[in-house]
Structure formats: structure tokens, C-alpha cells
Write a structure and sequence with these properties.
about 100 residues, about 90% helix, 3 helices
């Protein structure tokens, strides 16, 4: 029973840490990007959707790679060596990272 709670705790903190890592990065960069985007939009250079998609796609490899490396090392140490549990946790963490990055 206690090992199950420990595993759930590890999954919770891994999910929260990597999700908010991307969110805080986006929040800290937004004020500087806002000025550039507003100038370029007023000049008619591109639409806001083009900026958003380019930013999301350019940051996606980093958002996927760093949590993946972390999970490769942490999950076996936490006692979850099965491939099915790894990919379930990996998919959950990556999807939450991408979702919070888009906010």
C-alpha cells in the first residue's frame, strides 16, 4: 500500500514539475515576444496563428526530449520497469506539458 502511494506521488510531482516548467518558460518569455509580435502584426507581416504554430512547433522537441530523458532514469528507480507503465506515464507527462505550454 505504501509503495503504491509513493509511486502515485512520484507520478504527480513529475507531471506537475514538467508541466509547469514549460508554462513558466512561456510566461517569462511572453512580455518580450508580445512587443515583437505586435509590431510585426501591425506591419502585416503574418497572422497570430502563424506565430503561435511556429512557436509551438519549434519548442516541441525540447518539451518532449527533456521529460523523456528524465523519465527514462526516474521510472526504473521508482520501481516501474514495465514498458506499458513507462509509455502510459510518458504519454501523460508529455500531453500535460504540451497542454500547459499552449496556455
Amino acid at each position: 500500500e505504501s509503495s503504491i502511494q509513493d509511486k502515485y506521488g512520484m507520478l504527480f510531482f513529475a507531471c506537475i514539475y514538467w508541466s509547469f516548467q514549460g508554462c513558466f518558460l512561456a510566461v517569462s518569455i511572453f512580455p518580450a515576444d508580445r512587443l515583437v509580435v505586435s509590431k510585426e502584426r501591425s506591419a502585416g507581416s503574418y497572422h497570430l496563428s502563424a506565430y503561435y504554430l511556429a512557436k509551438t512547433f519549434s519548442e516541441s522537441p525540447l518539451v518532449v526530449l527533456l521529460p523523456s530523458i528524465y523519465l527514462v532514469f526516474v521510472l526504473p528507480i521508482a520501481g516501474m520497469p514495465s514498458v506499458g507503465s513507462f509509455f502510459g506515464v510518458w504519454l501523460t507527462v508529455i500531453m500535460s506539458c504540451l497542454t500547459l505550454q499552449s496556455l
